[in-house]
Design goal:
This protein is α/β, with parallel strands linked by helices. Helices cover 37% and strands 21% of the residues.
Length: 456
C-alpha cells in the first residue's frame, strides 16, 4: 500500500463507514411498523446472524460514542436479560427455528458486564428458540473489557460456543489511559490473552484508537510493540472522532490535548507500516488480519463482505438484532430498536416489538448496496457481475457516477480497466485508504447535513 500525503490531504473528507447501505441516518421513524413486520414474516432459508446489544458499562470512557448506560448496579443486567428473553420469544415466532445460526455477536456497552448466571440465563433462552452450532464452524464472538472479565466467566462463554473475542485496548500509554478514563495495565490484557489461548479461543481482535489525547508517535509505537508481542489474529485501528456536541462525555477531553491532524496522520502511517512489516494484511478501512485469518482468506477468494459488525465472512445471512438500539437487516429491510432503554422496555412489557424506525430498500438501493459493499470489501468491481445480477447496463445506469469517477482516476485512486467482455474498477494501492471516497460516488442518499467522521 502506497502512502500519498498530498492525495490523503485532498481526499480526507467526512463520509459514512458503510456498514450498511443506505446508512443509518436514512432510517425513518414514520415508516409503517406493519410493513416492517410484514417483511419479517416473509419466509427465508438463509442462515441467521444474531446480534445482542448489552448497553451497560461499569466505567465511563470519555472517548466512547456507543449507545451505553454507565452504572455500577450489576443487578440491572438481570432485568435486561429478562427483556431480551421476551424479545427473543416475540421474534422467534416469525422465524423457522431450524435455520442455523452461523454468526453470533455480543456488543455494547460492555457485554461482559453481565454476571455468569445472567449469561447462562441468556444462552438458555437463545438455545430454546434458535439452532446454535457447536461443531466448531460457528463464528460466535463477544466484545470484552479486560477490567470486566474473569477466567471463570470466560470459561463459561467458551462452553456456550464463543470462539472469537474482541478486546478493547485503545492504547497502552498510561498518560493516554488517564486522559480517556480507561486505565487497564498491560498485565491484565496479557492475562486475558493467555486465558483465551488456554481455553482454545481461535481468534482474538484488538481494538486500537489513534487521535486520542496525549498520543505521540513514540508512545503509540510502544503500544504497537506490545500488541505485536501478544499477537492477536486481527487488529482494528480506529480514528477518534471528537464530536462533543453529539457525545457529552467527550467534553471531558480538552481539545488542546488532542494530537494535531498532521500528528494523527503520522501515527496512522507508522501503524500501517509497522503492522504490514510484521506480517499483518491490510484488509481495508481500519482492519488488519494475519495471512491465515478467515478475513484474509475470504478477501483473497473474493468472498469478503461487510455488515454492522464490520468486515465479515457471513454477510449473506439474515441479521436479527436484539436489545436497545440494535439494527436488523433482512434482505435490505433495516429495522432499528428503540435507542432509549425506557421506550425499549415499555414496548417489550406491552408485548410489542421495540421498533423505533426502519428502511425498506428499493431495487436501486439494492444495486447500489452491492456496488458499494463489493468495492469496500474487494477493492475492485466488475461491471459484468452487476449487470448479470440486476439486469442493467452498468455504463448507462451509472453514467453520472462514472463521470464523477474520472477525477478519482486522474488522481490515481482508481483505475478503470477495459477488458474483452468486461470493465473493471480497480482501487489502486495508493487509493485503498480512501475507499470510502470511491463508495461515496455511488451513494445516492449522501447528505451533507449529517456529520460523519473523517475518512482517515
Amino acid at each position: 500500500m502506497i502512502w500519498d500525503p498530498l492525495l490523503i490531504q485532498k481526499y480526507n473528507l467526512s463520509g459514512p463507514r458503510y456498514t450498511s447501505y443506505p446508512t443509518a441516518p436514512l432510517f425513518d421513524a414514520s415508516i409503517s411498523k406493519i410493513a416492517l413486520i410484514d417483511r419479517m414474516l416473509r419466509p427465508s432459508d438463509a442462515p441467521i446472524s444474531l446480534y445482542f446489544h448489552i448497553p451497560f458499562c461499569a466505567h465511563l470512557c470519555y472517548y466512547c460514542a456507543c449507545n451505553k448506560i454507565v452504572t455500577k448496579q450489576y443487578d440491572k443486567g438481570e432485568e435486561y436479560v429478562e427483556l431480551l428473553g421476551e424479545e427473543i420469544r416475540l421474534r422467534s415466532l416469525m422465524i423457522d427455528a431450524d435455520r442455523p445460526v452461523t454468526q453470533l455477536h455480543f456488543g455494547g456497552g460492555t457485554p461482559t458486564f453481565l454476571s455468569e448466571s445472567q449469561w447462562q440465563q441468556l444462552f438458555d433462552v437463545i438455545n430454546r428458540h434458535f439452532s446454535l452450532i457447536t461443531n466448531g464452524s460457528q463464528d460466535y464472538s463477544v466484545e470484552i473489557d479486560p477490567r470486566e472479565i474473569s477466567k471463570s466467566k470466560l470459561t463459561l462463554l467458551t462452553t456456550m460456543g464463543i470462539n472469537r473475542v474482541s478486546i478493547g485496548v485503545q492504547d497502552f500509554d498510561i498518560a493516554v489511559q488517564r486522559a480517556i478514563h480507561r486505565i487497564q495495565p498491560v498485565e491484565i490484557v496479557e492475562k486475558l490473552v493467555n486465558d483465551c489461548r488456554e481455553l482454545g479461543i481461535r481468534s482474538i481482535n484488538f481494538d486500537l484508537i489513534y487521535g486520542l489525547p496525549f498520543q505521540t508517535l513514540d508512545g503509540f509505537k510502544e503500544t504497537l510493540n506490545i500488541v505485536l508481542r501478544l499477537q492477536p489474529e486481527r487488529i482494528s485501528v480506529f480514528n477518534y472522532a471528537h464530536l462533543p456536541e453529539r457525545f457529552p462525555a467527550q467534553k471531558r477531553i480538552p481539545e488542546e490535548n488532542l494530537p494535531s491532524a498532521e500528528m494523527k496522520l503520522h501515527i496512522l502511517k507508522m501503524t500501517i507500516d509497522t503492522l504490514i512489516e510484521n506480517g499483518y494484511v491490510y484488509i481495508g478501512m481500519d482492519h488488519f488480519a494475519k495471512p491465515d485469518d478467515t478475513l484474509t482468506i475470504a478477501q483473497n477468494e473474493g468472498k469478503l463482505q461487510r455488515n454492522f459488525q464490520g468486515y465479515t465472512t457471513h454477510a449473506d445471512t439474515d441479521l436479527i438484532a436484539f436489545g436497545v438500539s440494535a439494527i436488523s437487516n433482512l434482505g435490505g429491510v433495516y429495522i432499528q430498536n428503540h435507542t432509549d432503554l425506557s421506550l425499549y422496555q415499555n414496548s417489550i412489557e406491552n408485548g410489542q416489538l421495540p421498533i423505533m424506525k426502519g428502511y425498506i430498500s428499493d431495487n436501486d438501493d439494492r444495486i447500489r448496496h452491492q456496488v458499494i459493499m463489493t468495492l469496500i470489501s474487494q477493492f475492485r468491481l466488475s461491471f459484468q457481475a452487476i449487470e448479470q445480477e440486476f439486469t442493467i447496463r452498468f455504463k448507462e445506469y451509472f453514467a453520472v457516477e462514472l463521470a464523477k469517477l474520472k477525477q478519482l482516476e486522474l488522481d490515481g485512486i482508481i483505475e478503470i480497466l477495459s477488458q474483452q467482455e468486461d470493465t473493471i474498477i480497480k482501487v489502486t494501492d495508493r487509493g485503498r485508504l480512501l475507499i470510502r471516497c470511491v463508495c461515496m460516488v455511488f451513494d445516492k442518499h449522501l447528505n451533507s447535513v449529517v456529520k460523519y467522521s473523517k475518512v482517515i
